[in-house]
Amino acid sequence: MQKYPIVKTEIVIVVNPGSTSTKIALYAREGEVISQTIQHPQSELDQFGAITDQLDYRLRLITNFIDDYRSKQSISIVGVVGRGGIVKPLKGGTYRVNQAFMDDARSGHYGEHASNLGSLLANQIKNEYGLNECFTVDPVSCNNLWPKAEISGVPEITRDGRGHPLNMKMTARKVANKQGIDFSSSKYVVAHLGGGISISLIIGGQLVDINDGLLGMGPFSPNRAGALPIRGVMQLAYSMPETELKNKLSKNSGFKAYLGKEDLRDVLKMVNSGDTKAKLIYESFVYQVAKEIGACFAASKAEAQAIIVTGGIAYSEQFTNDLKEYVGKLTEYHVYPGENEMEALAEGAFRVIDGEEEAKEY
C-alpha cells in the first residue's frame, strides 16, 4: 500500500448523518481542522419518503460547506469516510465502500437508520472530488460476537449486536492509553448512553458481546423499549399492525412513553421537583443500565479493567453518580461524555491511507 508523508494540508472528509442533522468535518492526521453540524428541519425532511431519498439534499449542503472552506484554504483531499449504517453483521475494522455495501445500506434490508446514508454520501463525495475509493469504519452492525453470545434460546432467532461500536472502541482506546494498557490485551465494559443504549464487553480490542440497541435487548432508552417480557410483546403484536408496533417499540417507548419527555435533563427536572412517577421511572432506568453493565462484567469473568460510561447521557453528573453507586465497586469507573465518532472515522481512514491497516471488503 502506498504511504503518504505527514502533511497538515492533507485532509480526510468525514461525514456522519443523523436523523435530523449531518455532521461534517475535515481532519488532518494531527486532528480536526474544521467541523460543522448541519441541522435539517423536520419540515424539510418530510418531503422525502425513505431515508435514502435524502441523499442529494444532504450532499448539496455538505459540498457547499467543503467548497467554501477550499476557497479559503489550500488543502489536498486524500480520503473520504462515512459512518457505516445497518448492514449485514460484520467484523470490526475499516471497510472499503463497495457496491454491495451501498446496495444493502440503500435497501434498508437489515434496518433503516440515518447512518445508512453515510456510505452513500461518502461515495458521492468521493466522485465529486476525484478520488478512487472511500471508506467506513466499524459500521453500526459490526461486532466480533462470541458464538455463545449469539444464542437466543430459540433456534429461529439469533441475538444481534447493533449499537455504537465507533464510539465504544475509540473511548476504550483512550482509557487503555490512560491506564498504560495495550489495547490488544485489554478488557473493558463500555456503556454508550444516548438516544440508543449500547452496553458491550470489549476484549482485546474486539466487541465480543453487546445488546441490540435498536430493537432488541438491554435497558429502555429515552424513546426505545429495550428488553421486554415475551408474553406482553405477543399480546401487543396481535393487537396492532407491524409498522405501528415497530414505531411504538423503537420511537415511542422509554421515557417518552412514561413521562412525555425524551431528554434526560427534562426528566431530572421532574425528578428534582418532587415528581414521584418521574423518580420511579428514572430510578428504573439507572437500575436497568447497572444490571446490563453487571452482566457484561460477569461475562468478563470479573476481569474487566474498567467500566466506561460514554454518550450524551454521560454529561449528567447526577446520573453518572447514581450509576456509580451500583457498579463503582466492581472495577475502575471512567466517564467520557459525548462521542468520538468523527475522530474514530478519521483515524480509521488514515490507518488505511497510511498503510497501517488493510481495508476490509464487504
Describe this structure as you would to a colleague:
- There is one protein chain.
- By secondary structure, this protein is α/β, with parallel strands linked by helices.
- The protein folds into two domains: 10-144 and 341-361, Nucleotidyltransferase, domain 5 (2-Layer Sandwich), CATH 3.30.420; 165-337, Nucleotidyltransferase, domain 5.
- The protein is 38% helix and 19% strand.
- The chain has helices at residues 42-45, 55-70, 99-107, 117-128, 165-179, 230-237, 242-251, 254-259, 264-272, 276-299, 317-327, 341-353, and strands at 10-17, 21-28, 31-39, 76-82, 94-96, 135-137, 187-193, 197-203, 206-210, 306-311, 333-337, 360-361.
- The strands form three sheets. A five-stranded mixed sheet has the order 9-8-7-10-11, with helices on both faces. It has a four-stranded mixed sheet with strand order 3-2-1-4, with helices on both faces.
- Strand 10, helix 11 and strand 11 (333-337) form a beta-alpha-beta unit.
- Helix 5 (165-179) crosses helix 12.
- The model is unreliable at 1-7 (pLDDT under 50).
